[in-house]
Amino acid sequence: MGTDQVLLHRFVISQLAAAGLDRDRLIRETGVPEWTMAVDDVHLPSSTFTRLWELGEHGLADPNVALNVARRYQMTSLGLYDYLFSTAPTLGAGLATCGPYVSAVTTNHRFELITENDAEVTLYLDMITGEGRGRDLTQLWGLCAVLSRARRVIDHPVVPLRVSLRQRAPRELHAFREVFGTAAIEFDCPVDAITFRASDMDLPLTSSDPVLAGVLRPLAEALQPPPPLANAWPDRVAAAVAEALSDGEVSLDRVARRLATSSRTLQRRLMESGTTWRQELTRARNARLAQVEGTLSRSRQAELLGYADAASMRRAARRWSVTSNMHRSDQPA
Length: 333
Description:
- Helix 1 runs parallel beside helix 3 and helix 10 packs across helix 13 (277-292).
- By secondary structure, the chain is an alpha+beta fold.
- Strands 3-4-7-5-6 form a 5-stranded mixed sheet. The protein has a two-stranded antiparallel sheet with strand order 1-2.
- It folds into 2 domains: 3-221, Alpha-Beta Complex (H-NOX domain); 232-329, Homeodomain-like (Arc Repressor Mutant, subunit A, Orthogonal Bundle).
- Helix 8 (174-180) links the parallel strand 5 and strand 6.
- It has helices spanning 6-18, 23-30, 46-60, 65-70, 80-86, 91-95, 132-152, 174-180, 210-221, 232-247, 252-258, 263-272, 277-292, 298-304, 310-329; strands at 3-5, 43-45, 109-115, 120-127, 162-164, 185-186, 192-197.
C-alpha cells in the first residue's frame, strides 16, 4: 500500500475548508487521525488522500475541485519537496527534482521527465495503487500542482504544448483550459502527462538559490528512492498493441502515438523494464493467435496479426520459439 505525506492532506483540507466544507468532518470521514494535523513527518495510507478528493468533489458539488485547489497552490506547502524545486536554477532543473525525490511526499507516485525530441519534454505522472474517481482527481491535482508552482517562480508564461489525461472527457472543458492554459488537452489517454516546449526548460526560476540547494540536496539524497513501476509500460504496450491489431494496423510509431509518447521513448521504457518492442509485439501476436488458431486459415491469421503473409508468420513463430528456448536455458535450475 502506498503512503502520502500528511502535508498533502493538510493543504488540501485547508483549501476545502476555505471553500465551505467542515474541516472536522473532512478529517473524520477521510479517516485521518486528528493528531496528524499538528505534525509534519507522518505518512498516511494513500487511500485517505484519494478519499479526501472524493469527499471534496461531492461536498462542494464541484467536478473541477482538483483544478481549483491546484490553481491556488502555495509554494513551500510541501516543505523539502518544494524547496528542492524552487531553489533550482531553471524550470528543467526544477522539474528534474520531481522524480528522484517524490518519496519526500508520496510513495504512491512516480514522476519521470523525458526528453522526447529536440522540441518536446514530457513530465509523466504514474500512480502505483488507486482507482476510480479518487484516482482521476489525485492525478489531475498532481499535474496541476506542478504547473502551478512553476508559474509561481517564473517571470514568463508557462504554457504546455499538450496535456494527456487518463480520465474520461468531462462535459465542460472551460476550467481545464483555463488552468492548464491550453486547449490541447487529450482525454482517455494511457498516461497522465504534461508536454512542455524543450526551450522552456531553460527558463530561469526567480527563487533560485544554489547555496540553499546545496544544503538541501544531501537531505534529499538520504530519502528512500521511489518504488519501481517495472510492469507499467509492458502492460500498457500489450493493451495498445492488442488494439492496434484489432484495427489492422500495428507498428512501433502507431503504438507510440496511442500511448502519447515517441517511439524512441517507448523503446527506452521497455528496455528499462527488461523487454523490447519486438518481444512485446511477438507476445501480443501469440496471444491473439491463441484466440483464433484453428478457426481461421493461415493467411487470414497472418492478416489479423499484421504479417505480410503466412510465411512471414511462420518465420516469426520460429524465431520466437528459438528465443524463448534460449531464455529458458539461461535460467538457473
